[in-house]
Design a protein that fits this description.
This protein is an alpha/beta fold. The chain has two domains: 246 residues, P-loop containing nucleotide triphosphate hydrolases (Rossmann fold, 3-Layer(aba) Sandwich), CATH 3.40.50; 45 residues, no CATH class. It has nine helices and nine strands. Strands 3-2-4-5-1-6-7-8-9 form a nine-stranded mixed β-sheet, with helices on both faces. β7 and β8 form a beta hairpin. The radius of gyration is 33 Å and the shape is elongated. The two termini are 55 Å apart. About 3% of the residues have low confidence. Belongs to the ELP5 family. GO terms for molecular function: tRNA binding. It is found in: Cytoplasm; Nucleus. One of its GO terms (biological process) is tRNA wobble uridine modification.
């Protein structure tokens, strides 16, 4: 890919994530955030809420695991123990009527979809689709990918898993990971070692410590989390890229977003241009690759083997091979006849 096209693709991916977080032009009606026990996706949810408040959008927070109303939320809806129809009616009742002075955009945040997947997996697609009543409504839902979901007995064995259905319905998927773990995996790959594992993937008995027990990153590396974006276009084509999100200390401070490839630990070394560098520059090696003046004169004075065959010595005789036998050669009469 040419450098100009590569730079355009990188800039386009960064602008697409900004557009998704800012809820501009209905970039994604349904955004699914996938996190793990090792790295929570709540910083991404807080980023959505903070940007929604800047754009004066109304924020509805549907709580299935959260006890207290988060900062920046306009309406806090307790969904625990409610049926799908009752929950939908309560959420839609808080939508603005469109009168002057009301925010036209609405951000609906679901703190976790795991309880809904366990209690009503068959009704979940209809519930999420019914909440998106127009282009002004954006739904952001969090799903814990490594938390097992106990499906009801009425759930058919041939029906797809709720997570598969959610990934099919979502127009944007944000997979959240730990920056510290991504750096350690990158260092292992560079040294041709097996990538380390954390949490459940370690296969060790005991309590999961998670990120609380991780080593601190250096000041040069910074802190943050890795966000892998996948946005589905209307044409069916998907756009994917990995970013580093460094959340602000509070909602008033803006977060920092950059491409993962621009991080100091993930930058590729500056490659050469195919050996077309300056003639006077030598490579950084333990031995000299250059030639002295005497070695250069000796090389120019060497007569190549069969050099006489390159001259035209007559009609039809050009290109013949001239060979002089040495004392160590074994002459064979049969080969000479052939």
């Amino acid at each position: 890919m040419p450098p100009s096209a590569q730079a355009h693709s990188r800039s386009h991916a960064l602008l697409l994530l900004q557009k998704l977080l800012n809820l501009r032009d209905s970039a994604s009606p349904l955004t699914l955030v996938l996190d793990t026990l090792e790295q929570s996706g709540r910083p991404v949810i807080r980023e959505f809420i903070a940007r929604a408040k800047v754009s004066k959008s109304k924020v509805l927070y549907v709580s299935l695991a959260t006890l207290r109303k988060p900062a920046g939320v306009d309406v806090f809806v307790k969904a625990r123990g409610k049926s799908a129809d009752a929950l939908r009616a309560e959420i839609v009742s808080h939508y603005p009527s469109g009168a002057p002075g009301h925010a036209h955009k609405v951000l609906v945040v679901v703190d976790t979809l795991n309880p809904l997947c366990a209690s009503a997996p068959s009704q979940l697609p209809h519930l999420l689709s019914s909440l998106i009543t127009g282009p002004a409504v954006s739904l952001v839902a969090l799903y814990h990918a490594d938390v097992p979901v106990v499906l009801p007995r009425s759930f058919g064995e041939y029906e797809p898993h709720p997570l598969t259905v959610l990934c099919h319905l979502a127009t944007a998927i944000l997979r959240v990971g730990s920056l510290y773990q991504a750096i350690k995996r990158k260092e292992a790959r560079d040294r041709s070692l097996q990538e380390p594992e954390w949490g459940i993937n370690e296969g060790r008995e005991g309590v999961l410590i998670g990120l609380k027990g991780r080593e601190k990153l250096s000041k040069e590396d910074g802190d943050g989390l890795v966000v892998e974006m996948e946005v589905r276009r209307r044409s069916g084509r998907s756009v994917g890229e990995k970013f580093v999100l460094v959340p602000g200390e509070n909602m008033s401070l803006a977060s920092k977003i950059a491409l993962l490839s621009d991080h100091p630990k993930f930058k590729e070394p500056a490659g050469d241009d195919g050996g077309a560098g300056d003639e006077g520059e030598d490579a950084e090696t333990t031995f000299s690759l250059g030639l002295t003046e005497k070695q250069r004169r000796d090389r120019e004075g060497i007569v190549l083997p069969y050099f006489d065959a390159q001259t035209d010595i007559g009609a039809g005789e050009g290109g013949r091979i001239l060979y002089e036998m040495g004392r160590e050669d074994d002459f064979d009469d049969e080969e000479d006849e052939i």
